[in-house]
Every structure is written in structure tokens, then in C-alpha cells.
From TrEMBL:
GO terms for molecular function: transmembrane transporter activity. SUPFAM superfamilies: MFS general substrate transporter. Residues 6-401 form the Major facilitator superfamily (MFS) profile domain. GO terms for cellular component: plasma membrane. It is a multi-pass membrane protein. It comes from Mycobacterium yunnanensis. It is found in: Cell membrane. This is MFS transporter. It comes from the Bacteria.
Amino acid sequence: MRAWMVWTAGLLAYVVAVLDRTTLGVSGLQAAGRFDASPSLLSTFVVLQVVVYAGAQVPAGILLDRYGSRVLIVAGAALMATGQLLLALTESLPLAIGARAVVGLGDALTFISVLRLVPHWFEPRRVPLVTQLTGIFGQLGQVLSALPFLALLTGTSWATAYVSVAAFGVLAMVLALTLIKDTPRGRVVASENLSVRAVASSVKTVWLRPGTRLGFFTHMGTQFSVTVFCLMWGVPYLTVAQGQSAHVAGALLTVSVVTAICAGVLIGILTGRYPHRRSWIVLGIIASNALIWTVVLALPTRAPLWLLVVLVVVISVGGPGSMVGFDFARTFNPSSTLGTAQGMVNMGGFIASLLVMQAMGVLLGAAGGYSFESFRHAWTVQYAVWALAVVGILITRRKTRRLMAAEQERSLLECFERDTQRERSIERER
């Protein structure tokens, strides 16, 4: 029961992080009016947050390995609450952009810190499933942004909506201080002070492990499409380019979360039972994402609602699919550097997301703004990322399998040598 309490407190912090991450995505049109921002500038507004998030992953992982989950979750919640409060009160574009950067920094500290709790508090056979549950239930924050936050935003004011979100951050911080412990034995304490050179060497060692890079490309190929859709361009695309109402757009984002929950449970069970088939599951998810976008973008006119539902359902599987990348990191890295490895994996999808978001903003601006045709061309930038991710997965998977085979062979030789020495020892005694 204690393990579930700790995990629930961490999960609430992650729910708040997802809520903070996605609020601007559902309030993009209001933000454009409040700050007088063009599509290109609005995309930069969000991209900076993701740049900070992605750029902070490795430092956050290093800090996590040194100070543990509790400290980083509390710090992350405090940063996000501060950023959202500043965004609620300012009408200055530079201050608003800075506020989103602060939110991105707090967000960067949260997710991998919650994931780090899982192997400490749960037995190994449950870790893949609980990891998936962390990712999928964390997306309830997206439901909060798509429904109550959006309703509060349209029914009251910008300031009221964003102050309310900041209050959730304070609540998450208090619960984390009260309930979370790094391990059943207490707080994680670093055993030694590492120099900058030693830290850099450790980071290099973690990255050079093929399993870490396999997780990186897994996260990249599966996560970015649904992230770009939910975080930035999904609501404008559905309402302006596809002619759907704001309520329908919000409902489709809710469908995305429900899909992620269902798919996450299934993927968690499958990856736990068939660990050697994880990469095939990932490749299937990437292929399905590319296929459904091809069908939608090939239409010369607006897509019917049922096809948009299918689109949202298919790309939403990529969210829990990206969690397999963290499973690769856990499998192929020791516990002492797991935070760093998870931070590197988490960079994959968000680097891809920020590049696609920025590229789409530039293309939309060059095409004259939001329209069916401009969105149709802008979404095609996704195919370059899928191609890169698939190549990366295939190469690193092969290297990982070779490394595993070599380690198994070395282990068998060591066992053979020990048995031989034991037999010789017995013969000498006779």
C-alpha cells in the first residue's frame, strides 16, 4: 500500500505537469489575441518551452541520480506553479515566453523523477506495467486542459484560468513533500562528489550504450506526432482547417487520452511478457502513424469526422508506445545511471516535437496563415522524423542484440571456467 501511495503522489505531480504543458495548446487562439502573436511567433512561444524541456533532460537526469526523486518533483512543481502564475498576470509577450520557459524547466524535472520511483518501490515483474500506467494516467492532465481548463478560459478570463492551474502546482508540491520517499529505505544520497570531467564521462558512457540510443529513437519515432497535435497544432487544425467546433476538438483530445489509457495497459502487458518483441511493437506503431496521416493528408477536401476520430486514436497509441523507450533504458543501464539514461531517452520525442512544431509554424506563416491547404502541407514534415527514427531503431537494435549475445557468451565461458576449476580441484583432493 505504501508503494501505491508514493506512486500516486508522484503521478499527481506528473498530471499537473501535463496540464501545464498542454494549456497553451488549447488556448492558442486566445494567446494569439492576448499577445498579438502570428502563427510563426506563436509556435516559437511553445517551442521555447519544449527546447528548455528537452535541453534540461540530461542535467535533470544527473541531478536525479544524485539527489533522488523527491527533491526534483518538489522543485519541478514549484517552478511550474511560478511560471503559470506569471503567465496568468502578464500581458507582455517577452515575459509570457519567459514564463513558458520556466514551466518547461519544471516539467523537465518531473516525469523522469516519477519514473525513477517505480523500480525502487515495485517488484521487477510489475515495473513495465506500472511504467505504462504512469505515462497513460499522467495524460489525465490533458483532459483537464481540454475540458475544465478550456471551459474556465472561455467562461471567465485568461487570468482566472491560469491562476487555477498554478494552484494545482502548489497542491502537487505539498503532497510530494508529505508523501514521497525516494526508496523504501529513505532518501537517495550521492556516495561521492563527481568532477565535471567525471560527469561528462558518465554521460558519454550512458549514451554510447546501444540500449540507451535504442530507447532514444523509440521515443522519437512514437511520441512526437501526438505531442505536436495535442500541444500545439491539433486544435487549430481541427477547428480552422477541418471546420470542427471547439467542443468537438476538446472531445477529440479526450478521445486521445482514453485511447492512450487503453493502449498503454495492453502495451505494458505485451512488453512485460514478450521483452524480445518490444522493437517490433514500436515499429508497428510508427508505421500505423505514418499510414493514417497519409490517408488524411491525401484527401483533397476536409476529412469526415469519423476519419478524424480514427486519426486521433491511431496517433494516440504513440504516447504509451514511447514508454517502451524508458523500458529499454532500464533494461540496458545500471541503477546508478538510470536517471541520466531516462533523461536521454526523453529527449528523443521532444527534440522531434519541437523541430516539427517550429517547422510547421514557419510553413503556416509562409503560406499566409491557417487554412486547409497550408496545414495539409505543414503536416508532411513528420515523414522526415519517422524515417530517421526507423533507421535509428534498426541500427541500434542490431548493435544491442550483438552486445547481448556477446555478454551471454562471456557469461557462459565464465561459468564453464568455474566448473572446470571446480572439477580440477575435486580431482586434486581425491
